[in-house]
What does this fold into?
Amino acid sequence: MKKNKNFYYFLLILSVLVYAIYSTLWEDVNMVRPDLPAYLSAAQDISDGQIDNLNIRVPGFPILLLITGSKIQPTVILFYTQLLLYVLAVMALSWMLYKLHVHKLHVLLFSIIAFLPYNIVITTLAMSETLTAFLLVYGFFFLFYWLLKEKYLFLILSALFFGYVAITRPTYQIIGVLFVFIFICSLPILKVYKKKMLYSILAIGMISSIFVGSIIYNNYQKFNFVGVTPLFGFNLSTKTTFVIDRLPEKYAEVKDILIYYRNKDFLETSDHNARMYIWDAIPDLEKATGLDLSELSNYMKELNLDLIKRAPQPYMREVGASIASYWLPYVQVESFFGMKILQFIYVLIHFIVFGGFFLLLVFMMGLIFVSIFFKNQFQFFEKIDELYIIVLLIPIAIIFYTMLISTLFEVGNPRYRASTDLLILFSVFAMFNFIKNKIPKKIS
It folds into this structure.
């Protein structure tokens, strides 16, 4: 017991040192990013305690902007707060790994990788990634303790964290459905924890529905718009960039505008892929159609779905490209301090970690397949703690759910993955420990 406490204290001291180093190192960092104005606009709108405009950004992160005095521009307090949230998230996952009997050196290695500049650099962005990562980790953390200790306080806290993440990133607005899927997938091995998992689904589903439902109700009452944000219709345009020439005659009034801005963006932007052209086109689209933002979003949703039906193969190709892009390194210039050798090292670590994640995941899936179809010869699940399987399944489900939403309806920017990178790293160490210590020595 004393050794356990000493290790916890060691992790705490390491976390405090990391916080002190980065808070000094990046104190004057530029936190402004292209998406920031939309968050600031939302923060200013809700500063009087109510939503008066149909904002393209949901209120989760704008509330943090208000709390940190950043509704006009990002403040250093916002950076300090995000850095604290990130450090607390790493501490929670380190603690969980230790509770899962992962070796101390492996827990320490997890913490070191998580605290490397290329991972922690998301705290320097005045965007929702850090808050989202914190909410996902602590939703998971408290769910683990609810399953372990059966204290309803942990269940309520878990549901609140998962509920709030639903109004921080629209990606997670149906997170309750994800947990239904997790429950169904875990049914073959659930015995002791079936009732607890059912309570978890009900609590997370109910609270997330209240959070999301309140935003939808407000938008419908005030703006006659059903949804948490009008982004969806525009985001779909990233999937139809190269097939807008196929638009039928009924969209003639907007076809020329879309083609003009796509070609302009293709020639003038540094990446030359034109997939984000739609944001430049919106003012002209509003003028041409006479629609407001919410109506135009619905119009673009109908237009893009029509295009996807007409050209499903190009859509599938775009999704494939987004998936490939999604798993690439997200290394910001602030993290390697202008030193290319550091950038190379970070990229190398990234591919080792993510390669390990997929390799271990395939191995785990193979074990599960053998266990299901060869029960008599390989009684695998009977020999392990089912809680460990649940603890592995939850982050992996969140990771792939995030990927699917980010690539089916968006461009698959690696930044969209950043909020799950800690869960990916956690899964690598948890799966390795599981395979190393839990597999029976002989198949019998």
